[in-house]
Specification:
α4 (156-178) crosses α8 (310-333) and α4 (156-178) runs parallel beside α12. 30% of the residues lie in helices and 17% in strands. The protein is of the alpha+beta class. The strands form 5 sheets. Strands 6, 10, 11, 14, 15, 17 and 18 form a 7-stranded mixed sheet that branches. It has 2 domains: 1-167 and 181-216 and 411-499, no CATH class; 222-348, ATP-grasp fold, B domain (D-amino Acid Aminotransferase, Chain A, domain 1), CATH 3.30.470.20.
Amino acid sequence: MSIDEAKRFGQQPVDILTFADKNKINLEKTGETRDAKEEVSLNNNPSPVLMNKPYKYDEIEQIITVDRLLNTEGYDINQVQEIKPETYGLKPEDVEKTYIGKVRNNFLVDVKNSTLDYKEKEHFNLKDGDKVIYSVASNRTSAFNVPVLIPETPYKGAVLNSISDFIEKKILTPLAEKNKDWNLKFDTVRWDLKYYQAVPLADRNSQAELVIRKALTPIKLEMVARKYLTGTTDTSISHRYFVDGERKFDDITLPENMNLHDELSKTILTPTTKDKDDRNLSNDEAIEELKRLAEGNEELSLAIDKVGGADKLYAKMKEITIKSLNAIDDHYKHRGLVFPDLKLEFGVDKNGDLYLMDEKGSPDNLRIWNKESLKAAQEENKRTQDAARATTPQNNIVKFDPKKLAQVELSYDKDYLRKKVNSSKEFGLWKKTPAKDDQKSVLEQIEGNKNHIHDGGFKAYKPSTLEFFPLKKVAEYANMLLYINSFMTGRSFRVGASK
């Protein structure tokens, strides 16, 4: 991209994430000589990424820095990202329903009031009266179950959309085409690569954050495929194995004396209800739950009838989820990435057709591990757990707390930020913030919560000079997201230069 091309975007020369000599990621200005460089192409058929394994964070050139966050004109770290329908060409009065979540803001509109052109409407068989969702991926922090006192992460929303788009179009769509008996459709109507352009840091509402999706009736079952004995929550497969003593999962029985993060003999499905508190289900229970959900639900009832019963619809959803995880994992395995599990969302339309909906895989809903880091954790857990079992009387089952065993330290997902926070002795800012404080600046929130901060973390900071943990970690997290996007998709993410 030349300087002239950059100016056509209305920007100054931009920084581009590129791959140099297969060993280092470089940050360079557009317009500079790059005869010795090889840049990953930015088109619908990206050239292969040059590196053959993911590198550690400290080997990544830092595109987003604390200095840049503080000194970019028009960018205020204390400002709350405002996601308004007008930004995306909608009139507020035409929005029929608004949903604001941790990750996304969704605006429901009638097709006649959308910005879709006639070709898009024709291709997706959308008519006036049909509904679409303008889904905007925010830059909000979503790594925790409570609001956190951390500034937003620049470019996060655009990166989530890019990776999800790549997985959908390059991995899952070809998979669905090979399995024509699935009759599977995708809800994405528009996410255009052309919007993936030079976006200035101060622009918190780029078009790359928007995905237009077909509005569907969701099937409220959590379909989670798993390849590894992992997880730390009370509903995770590892907690059920090591603490609750369960051995039967899906259609396999796990052997005794497995260790945390061990690979399973086959990919399995562990469905749950989709409630405030998810409840684990067996396959038979999931089928009964599907029947219950269909009561009074015309679209879901039609989908069940079309395939010949709830058991057959569930079997199809299960097969799709398991094969999708295997396909994603296989696609990146030779590149040094491991995908231990995958959650997919299903929905149906008014004709009873089955869809994959929402994100199809991104660092926000998919764990992405470094293979070498996984191996190190497996070896440590084998030593720890085997030693504990060796000193336990025969026939006694040893219970382990998964949280106290070795974790996969190098991950390229939202767990990265969570681990940085939890492992930092200095950081104590992730206490729940009252709703009335949501619009307060980061510094005001810190000041107001200083009496509730654990580990004496507040004393370590000088808020007046902004020398505190969040900015440094947010910058690291932003760089990691830019890096893993380029690594997984082969798309250069073009970051607008500071003004």
